[in-house]
Amino acid sequence: MWQSLRSLLSGYLKSLGVLLRSLWQGLSGRGSLVFSLFFVVLLAVLFLLGTEPGRIALTRMALMTAEEVVEGLDIETGALSSPALGSWEFERLRVDFEQENLTQAENLAVAVDLTALIRGRIDIAHVRADTLRLDNDTLTRLLETLVSEDQPPQTSEPLSLPTVRISELHIGRLHVLDERLQELPVFSVDGSASLKWPDTPGGLNLQVYEVDGSQLRLDLSASERESGAVTVELDLSEDARGFLGRLLQLPEAQALDAEAKFDLREQDSGKWQVEIGTLSLPLVEHRFALNGALNLTLSPWQVDSSGLTLEVDETRHSISGSVGDGGVDAELQLRKLPLSISRPWQDVLQGGWLSADLSVRGPLALPEVSGVIDLSTHFRQRPLRLQGRLETEEKVLTVHSANLEYADAALEASGQVDLGRETIDLEGLLAGMTVAELNELATAFTETAPLPPQLSGDVERLKVKATGPWSNPAFTAELQANPAYEAFTARLSAAVEGDLKSVKVSQLKLEGEGLSLGATGVVDIDGQTLNMKLQVAAQEFSPSEALGLSATEGLVITLDSSAVVSGPWKNLRITSDLTSSGRYRQYRYRLEGAAAGDLDKIELDRMRLELYAGEPTLAEPLSLRGPQSLILRDDEPIKGGYPPEAVAGLAAESEQLGRAGSAWLEVDGIVEPRKARADLTVSGRNIPVSLAQLAGVELPPSLEGEVSLDGELTGPFARPEGTLNLLAVGLFRREPWHLQGTIAYASGALQLSAVELVWAAENQLSAEGSIDSKTLQLDLRGRGRLADLPVDLPADIRENGSIELWATASGSPDNPELAGELVINSQRAENVRGGGEPLGLSLQWQTRGDNLELSLGASHGERQAAEADAVLEVTPLLKQLTTPRAEGEPAPPLPLRLESRGTADLSVVAAFIDPDIHALRGQLNFSLDADGTLAEPELEGGIELQDGSYEHRPTNTRLRRIDFLARLTPERWVIERARAEDGERGSINLGGEVRFAAESAPELDFRLRAEKAQLLNTPAVRGAISGNLALTGTTEASLLEGSLTLRPLTVQIEQMIGSSVPEIDVVEVEVDGPPVEKSRPFLDSIALAVQVVLDQQSYVRGLGLDSELVGTVAVEGTAAKPRAAGALRIVRGNFDLLGKRFELQEGQIQFENNVAAVYVKGRHQYTDGEIIAEISGSGDDIDITFSSTPAAAQDEIFAQLLFGKQLADISPLQAVRLVSVVRTLQGGGAAAFDPVAKTRELLGVDTLDVQSEETDEGDQYALSLGKYITNRIYIELQRSTDPLNPWEAKMQIELRRNLNLQFKSADESESGAGSVELQWKRDY
After folding, report:
1. To which H or E segment does residue 47 belong?
2. Integer Cα distance of 921 and 1308 in angstroms
3. pLDDT value at position 351?
4. Superkingdom of this entry's organism (predicted)?
């Protein structure tokens, strides 16, 4: 830009040079020179001010100069024009300061009369802008930058107001940003003003309107009635819940309505008399008003008033006097001023009032205040009252009395503060304050409560006295308190004296039940040193009961200990002698020793803990057997046979101590905290493992035992070196365990010697060898019972099974030679299909070069179940793991390279699952290769199953001709074909894929189609499924949607109810730790939108019911927590109730939130009328009601249903049955639907029916009993009172779903041995 201006000016100057040269030739002498210079200046001024390009260039130069003068200022302009001198129009103007926007305007136009400035007047023709944005926070920073450090000298000359006229002010949208007013709305501003303008009365008109908001409106006007007299009026309004209403905390339904009117009269230059006629506005729930007169001097500033009256509702308050640069001399009188008006600025005090009669005199920096004050309010819902009287005379402030009452606490203070000599003589007394009240007061100044919530009690008395210079007063303090923590209550007393340089604690004593603590000493604040003596004593103290420390449960302490803490704060030295005794659970203990040192070095002198299990006894200790291996073996030892000599010595000494019922743990040596180093020896005998809980270690509840050890620890904390000889015995899940061996670590090498673990006698594991950065030599051996291990296999396989392991590693960590085998052997129980034959599973591995070769095999008897081989490229992975990294350096991804192949005979694999439940057939082949990293593997391969079949035997669900093929690539997993048939005419087809994207979760797209698939084949429910399902989305959020039609469907109620409830033997198993709910993240991420449709051929039969259903049930929710909702309508059918057939009139089953509610209405007709039965309810809460036409009592209805007679005609035996039925029905529940259900359960049959029939010979009865021998064979026996046919037997065999074979015995009236029927049925 500068170069463009220079070029422009250079061109004009060259032209001027030609002209001047011609003039110079015609003129000579001094006059010629003066004339030439004047002519050049005149031409420059005419160009810059007289042409628009010149004015624009001058404007841009001025803006650039402003950027140079003010550091951090950046001004950008769009199209700029200057139609006249003093007039500028900006299409866009943006001003930034320190990279933050200061202001931004659109279509800004400014016109100023520059000639008026020469006469000392400011005449602005117009200021117009469509939009104007101003950041007040950035403006404040800019003004602070512009303020000079050298302030101008104060002047007593009167400040005179300038002569100003603004003809037009218009801003379409004014947006002011201020962090203190976050919700400041956008305004529209219009106005004009004049002040001291010749021949024009002064005045002001300003209108401010809120744009698109709560209609905030401000009208400000000022008019000059006569010379020097101005009347100012203000009207302010806003709808309810607007910006100002929220700021003033007005009630939600209250609109803002404020007004003000006052008169200004200029008495002299810079001096004004102000008469406040009206000033009224709402504030919180009150009305605020101010009136009176005052005198205002602008320079030096001062305000004088003979009296201003402040009115808040019905209360009146006054202020009089003067305040200014010269000081203050004022009187303030408040008469129960409502404190709620301060709510916009503070929320600590709630409600109440303030009264005061104060006199304030002297300089503003430190005025003298005298008078009384009375405050009544609430703090944190507790009453607070403050009363005080103070007086200031000759710079001495005397507090005659100051009383603060808060709840039940009281604070009294009095004394003097000498402002001239800067000394104090004050004393205060606090009494009756609880710890909760202290916490509440503290939270007014801090974000969180400084005292823990478990701490309670009260401060009975705290007395403080301070005298001397306030820079370092001498003070004394006495404290009496009654603290409580959890269940521990105590008495606390303390006395201190000193100053801000040194404090002496002459007494500090805490005494509670079973525990006392004392301290004396000196705290040198100037020298930053400490010299304190501490004394702690305890007698039968239980930390868990008194302090709520659950980790110390069972610990009872008797203690007498002293300690001295001295030295500089940065390196305190502690010397301590400790003697303690007591009980821990079933043990008595004694702890003693000494410790001394500082942060450089702490010396531990035989810190010893001894445990005693009651009185000494000669009983055999827990499984400690002296200097032989603790692992008992039935055959040859796994590794070695005897522990090393160090462990043998441990065993011998532990046995001797165990016989005496004692144990101990001792630590001796040096700890260097600053260097993070230690040199310690640790020894222990028969230490209970439960002591680990004191250190915060969580142990299984069933784990118990004792540990003996000898060890050394030396070196830095981060890389310690040491040796540990370990021997431990105990019980886990009520079975004994043993652990022994030697573990050493030095110079980066780990050494294991005869480390052996045995549990429950037959579960054994041993380790031997060493490992460091260059060499590797490890040997691992183990064996055990499957029943003792957490493996997911059928119970009989676990009970009969065993597991063996051997593994070796040699070479180096980054290039090891690995070999090993894991073998599982078992057999199925004799009563299980395929039982008695051995089951075997083996996994072998061996390194060859850079690869680890793995082989998996499984067999059942002589048949091979599965064979698989894999090759894993292991060397690059191990090198990555063993490569050292700098501290903080992230671990790189671990490389992966795998090749695997395998086959499986599913008919043999089924023996490993449960052949009585699952039947499998088919040959499964797979190949899988993996590349990439362990975190993000890239898989490629395939899985194929040909001519497979599956049967779920308990439900008779069968799938035949299963054909499955899936292809896996790094980008997609695709199911190329997946089809199965049900063995009749139904089929299932599945297709789809999983797609992998680089930056998002895998995408799912699967489709399933079922065509008359007969998947429901239980005796209770039989039916075929047709429909389509689709699973789409991602593994993080997917949707399973579709529609399934059940057609045909048959439900046999008696098969669902069964004959009896089986008894199950329940054995309570001890579980280590609370039950943990298994996470199902994938199922939780699958949303459901499935419709189950019953449109035809859906029947419910049994127990006298024969009906057809139609309807739709929607299954929603997630796959982990599905929800069923919908309705099934009963369209036709009948049901038997109390031995009578009812024709269904209407019925519905409603599903909501996985609860099914039923409503059934049926009609039974007899000779003289009809009976209506209504069944409703859900679950076990079933209600049955009866009505009849003609109307009859309930017992009459029951008599008609049960016996076909009136109540007066029934026999005594029938009356007994009637009473039983009435009571059963009145009790409600499912039993009311079948009165003979209890009898059926007692007899152990599936069906029981009693029928009656009226004949010419009288009433005849028939009793029938039925039983399902298998799922497909049903036998029924009937006995009747008919002498011609007293007995009848039936057998029904289901050959196929729609084909039954029925055998029936012959009647006496029939010849032959009975009948055989072949029944074919079809549901429509």
Report:
1. helix 29-50
2. 52
3. 87
4. Bacteria
